[in-house]
Amino acid sequence: MAIASTAEKNSLATKYGQDCGYIALTNGAPGTGNIANELTSAGYSRQACSWGSPTNGQITASGSFTIAANQPITHAVLVGASSGATAVLDSVPVTWTTNGAQALANFTATFTVS
Fold first, then answer.
1. The pTM is what?
2. How many C-beta atoms lie closer than 10 Å to residue 35's C-beta?
3. Is the per-residue pLDDT at 97 higher than 70?
4. What average pLDDT does the segment 15-43 reach?
5. Nearest-angstrom CA–CA distance, 111 and 67
6. Does residue 15 sit in helix, strand or coil?
7. Domain ranges of the chain
8. Region at 31 (left for phi over 0; alpha for psi -120 to 50; beta for the rest)
9. Phi/psi at 13 (nearest 5 deg)?
10. Neighbour-count burial of 33, counting CB atoms closer than 10 A to its CB (0-12 exposed, 13-18 middle, 19+ buried)
11. What are phi and psi of 98, to 5 degrees?
């Protein structure tokens, strides 16, 4: 059943953004409990998600990572903490590998309540 109230959709989208404060990258399945297979290369760290204001139940965040050379990435993962063991709140498979040089990876995350 779809949510009829735009105000309720926006409220749920805002809560999602508050809970999912950081994005992490993995080079294998991220798991369903605490995050697994997170990158450990030099210069890598989780990035804060700066979520915008929701519109019609949709909220978006963006940012960037510096990724080491030849680093495969299999998943982008939303978590609630900047470091350490933390639960996987959401994830999406991605296919990306830097090609022989350090690279800047930009991300855009969008969540929609329907």
1. 0.88
2. 22
3. no
4. 94
5. 24
6. helix
7. 6-112
8. left
9. -65, -40
10. exposed
11. -70, 150
pLDDT digits (tens, 9 = 90+) for 51-81: 999 999 999 998 888 888 888 889 999 999 9
Q: Which residues contact 10 (CB under 8 A, 6 or more apart)?
A: 54, 55, 56, 57, 113
Mean pLDDT of all residues in the chain?
91
Indicate the length of the chain as a whole number.
Answer: 114
Calpha distance 27→34 (Å, rounded): 15
Cα separation, 23 vs 51, whole angstroms: 11
Q: How far apart are CA 59 and CA 86, in angstroms?
A: 22
**Dihedral Cα 99, 85, 21, 105, nearest 10 deg:** 0
